[in-house]
């Protein structure tokens, strides 16, 4: 027996091979045979050595040997996949499949035979055929799924391209329209300012106030649309930070907003020294959007409180109002474009860009914005910036 350190000998491999192996002389005399063949045919090795293989065949097999096997081995030197019967030691027929080759050696000519039991060969072929059919079915199923996936991806690409085209067209139209609206709005504002310098009666001044208010709202809307277009095409909102006093800036902005929203109480709370570096125009826009949102969605009698804080851990601008809280399902997406709540102030309705622009201005200053809202405490939108010395 071979040990773990020694490979099995060639004789052991020869004897234990899965098929019958024989070496015969040119006349069919068996010179070497493995135990597998001996087991199949019911003879011992000693009984087979020196015996001609054709003596193990039935009459039909012997005829096949003389008329087919011998001539083919001499002409072609090989016999492949030939079926015939061998007679078992007990007398019953044992179907075999044969492959043989003719070999020339210095000692003479001999034949190498490999035999398989036909039943096992048929079983192997059936299993092979079944495996092939199963593989073909899986391949057909895979190809069908792949084709369906390719069709779906093709449709998705077409849909995506169409959506991109529509989005690009919408962005271009928003940019063009909002840009072209600025000139006539500026002319309206200038004309209203000139008219305001004349002597007007109460009715005329009221009408002029409405014109001015509407023009200012339109200008804010145009500014939001332009900023939205810039963010959608990847340019982002540009800022030019300069040193300023945050408290004074917020106070000045609220003074202007009191003229825009007469009848609404705007309160300013200050904390800290006020030194800050930011784009003043953008902060005016940010505060204006937050206050307009608070007035639109807050209670009419509640007023709006704006807090400006400059502390060691950061700078904040917070806008608080009382009224119906923001629905929980809107909180996560409140700062996305086109998100709007519901309110009764029809004249203050917008396209839903105000808070989106607030967030983009905050991020342009390396800050961010958050919201808290409840019935008891009201709604607070807080913009947080890095510390003043950041």
TrEMBL record:
Residues 176-389 form the Histidine kinase domain. Its EC number is 2.7.13.3. Residues 13-60 form the PAS domain. This is histidine kinase. It catalyses: ATP + protein L-histidine = ADP + protein N-phospho-L-histidine. GO terms for molecular function: phosphorelay sensor kinase activity. PANTHER family: HYBRID SIGNAL TRANSDUCTION HISTIDINE KINASE C, TWO-COMPONENT HISTIDINE KINASE. Signal peptide: none annotated. InterPro entries: HATPase_dom (IPR003594), His_kinase_dom (IPR005467), HisK_dim/P_dom (IPR003661), PAS (IPR000014). SMART domains: HATPase_c, HisKA. The lineage of its organism: Bacteria, Pseudomonadati, Pseudomonadota, Gammaproteobacteria, Pseudomonadales. Pfam families: HATPase_c, HisKA, PAS_9. Keywords: Kinase, Phosphoprotein, Transferase. NCBIfam families: sensory_box. It is an enzyme of class 2 (transferase). It comes from the Bacteria.
